Amino acid sequence: xxxxxxxxxxxxxxxxxxxxxxxxxxxxxxxxxxxxxxxxxxxxxxxxxxxxxxxxxxxxxxxxxxxxxxxxxxxxxxxxxxxxxxxxxxxxxxxxxxxxxxxxxxxxxxxxxxxxxxxxxxxxxxxxxxxxxxxxxxxxxxxxxxxxxxxx
Length: 152
Known about the structure:
Blueprint: H1 6-12, H2 15-18, E1 21-23, E2 26-30, E3 34-42, E4 49-57, E5 73-76, H3 77-80, H4 85-91, H5 101-119, H6 129-136, E6 139-140, H7 142-151
């Protein structure tokens, strides 16, 4: 019997309460001017994972399910929650025994990422404290930076 990945299970549990939509190993939240993306990436060197967080800016092109690596604004959960980086690295490493793995990941996303997604439903949301912090922790492609500079 194949056991489901506990990290995927944790994120899947958020779908009913957040409006996230799962497609091809990523979770999406389409909003007024943005699409928030959560992507679980497996390390090529073992059972370690990364949680990538991204935004696609709809004024720069309307797509349904943008690949995380093609999004206009991208970062990792461990970068956003730098004060909890060591804990999250352990939670995302399936070789480390963590009975609370699913709950810690679910809570980190629910309390930190979902609110950022909601506050950044529009480009103006990146002016708000959560949106500004997200930008500070992220890689922002040139065309997105120009668009945000015009708005923000």
